[in-house]
From TrEMBL:
The chain crosses the membrane at residues 28-45, 52-74, 80-103, 115-138. It is found in: Cell membrane. This is Uncharacterized membrane protein YjjB (DUF3815 family). It is a multi-pass membrane protein. It comes from Orenia marismortui. GO terms for cellular component: plasma membrane. Keywords: Cell inner membrane, Cell membrane, Membrane, Transmembrane, Transmembrane helix.
Length: 146
């Protein structure tokens, strides 16, 4: 039951983010679906890998694929779906913990948490870049075959 509530919360979070940042109204439902799929894949990946960085990477790949597919369905830019859909994965709590440890003078824990935060952010960026490059490559191959 808790997982279902988390998925609903991710759905609402992403729709709200999209609304605040003026995403097209016709895209809001699919934005929510992207956010829910993102968070669901993160939960599953974290369960199977027990690693936040790998789980963030895999969930970001799901967001990238959803963004590419939904953008073509709705005839909108991919960034509309990717930017809003990635919001549940943003490492806000680890970044906060990094600052808190550093302010409290616990430098070793702060650096450890900071490195984890940077690795999560890099995994998210790398996954989105891989999916984007793959989609461009696929489009280019498809164009040459026609």
């Amino acid at each position: 039951m808790a997982i279902i509530l988390e998925l609903i919360a991710a759905f609402i979070l992403v729709i709200t983010f999209g609304s605040v940042f003026q995403a097209p109204k016709k895209s809001l439902f699919l934005l929510g679906v992207t956010g829910a799929l993102c968070w669901g894949s993160f939960i599953m990946a974290k369960y199977f890998t027990d690693n936040l960085v790998i789980a963030s990477f895999l969930a970001s790949i799901v967001v990238g694929i959803c963004g590419e597919v939904f953008a073509r369905i709705m005839k909108l830019p991919v960034t509309v779906f990717v930017i809003a859909g990635i919001i549940p994965l943003v490492p806000g709590v680890p970044a906060y913990d990094t600052m808190l440890f550093l302010i409290q003078g616990e430098y070793i824990q702060g650096v450890e948490k900071g490195i984890t935060t940077l690795m999560i952010a890099a995994a998210i960026a790398f996954a989105i870049a891989i999916v984007s490059a793959g989609a461009r490559y696929y489009k280019e191959i498809k164009a040459h075959q026609s």
